[in-house]
Design brief:
One of its GO terms (molecular function) is metal ion binding. With 260 residues, the chain is an alpha+beta fold. It has two domains: 133 residues, Fructose-1,6-Bisphosphatase, subunit A, domain 1 (Fructose-1,6-Bisphosphatase, Chain A, domain 1); 112 residues, 3-Layer(aba) Sandwich (D-Maltodextrin-Binding Protein, domain 2), CATH 3.40.190. Helix content is 34%, strand content 26%. The chain has seven helices and 14 strands. The radius of gyration is 17 Å and the shape is globular. The structure holds D-MYO-inositol-1-phosphate and calcium ion (2 copies). The site of one calcium ion (CA) has 4 residues, from strand 4 and helix 6.
Length: 260
């Protein structure tokens, strides 16, 4: 079986655990004031670590719930067992298992699987981005005023510190200039929607590699742009990520406030 087929199969199997959990009672623990984790995040990650270590023995497995090392790795799979845990807890079906394979500093394979809607987004470098059998392209909308844009809010907002201020300033700056803004609660799904042509752009600060490792490749392979807030190539650990169709990415970079 090819590597991408194996990755899709493992994501689907992990998705079964997530789907079972979505319809069951959950034990909810707090990683921070508003940052939640359930037994299903942990169980799904454990399953993924077992399955991926067997299928991809040469890759470092960077799982959200267990990994503590450096993010800068030669060959790695960045794993978010449930991206959108707050949605998972509240019964909102915008969530996914996200698996991003990176080699030599670039994404090579990606799978984002929403087991509730049974939507499987995948990409291979140089071979396009797909939803099942359908090839994806970013939207052709050229004006910021027609753009439906997605974002997210960092958990650190509760401190009303610099992150909170930036989020509020960014909204104040762009809201009058765009069609509308969405905060749906899963960066991996948001990036998949951008690749699919639903959103014209997505931006957020303080994301971790497992939130975006797969979605970045989906967007790039669907013809979109990905950068940090300064417009430079995005690297894990950068303060912000800005992604979009080529035209809207450029316009959004100009409109967003710099991160201090
Ligand atoms: C979160 C989601 C959310 C984003 C947060 C992430 P989690 O991931 O992607 O949309 O705004 O910043 O941490 O905690 O549900 O895996
Ligand atoms: Ca996440
Ligand atoms: Ca998660």
């Amino acid at each position: 079986m090819s590597d991408i087929k194996l990755l899709k199969l493992i994501a689907r199997e992990a998705g079964e655990i997530v789907r079972r959990g979505y319809h069951s009672h959950k034990e909810i623990h707090h990683k921070g004031v508003v940052d939640l984790v359930t037994q299903y995040d942990v169980e799904t990650e454990r399953f993924l670590l077992d399955a991926l270590s067997e299928a991809f023995p040469d890759h470092t497995l960077v799982g959200e719930e267990s990994y503590t090392g450096s993010w800068d790795l030669e060959r790695a799979i960045y794993i978010d067992p449930i991206d959108g845990t707050t949605n998972f807890v509240h019964g909102i079906p915008h969530l996914a298992v996200s698996l991003g394979v990176w080699e030599g500093g670039e994404a090579t394979m990606a799978v984002v699987y929403n087991p509730i809607l049974d939507e499987l987004y995948w990409a291979e470098r140089g071979r396009g981005a797909w939803l099942g059998e359908e090839q994806l392209r970013v939207s052709e909308d050229q004006t910021l005023q027609n753009a439906l844009i997605a974002t997210g809010f960092p958990y650190a907002k509760v401190n009303r510190g610099a992150e909170y201020r930036w989020v509020v300033d960014a909204i104040a700056e762009i809201l009058p200039r765009i069609q509308d803004l969405r905060r749906l609660g899963s960066a991996a799904c948001d990036l998949s929607y951008l690749a699919r042509g639903i959103f014209a752009a997505f931006y957020e600060i303080n994301l971790k590699p497992w939130d975006v490792a797969a979605g970045i490749l989906l967007v790039q392979e669907a013809g979109g742009r990905v950068s940090n807030l300064a417009g430079e190539p995005y690297r894990f650990g950068d303060r912000g990520i800005v992604t979009g169709t080529p035209a809207i990415h450029r316009a959004l970079l100009e409109a967003l406030p710099p991160y201090i």
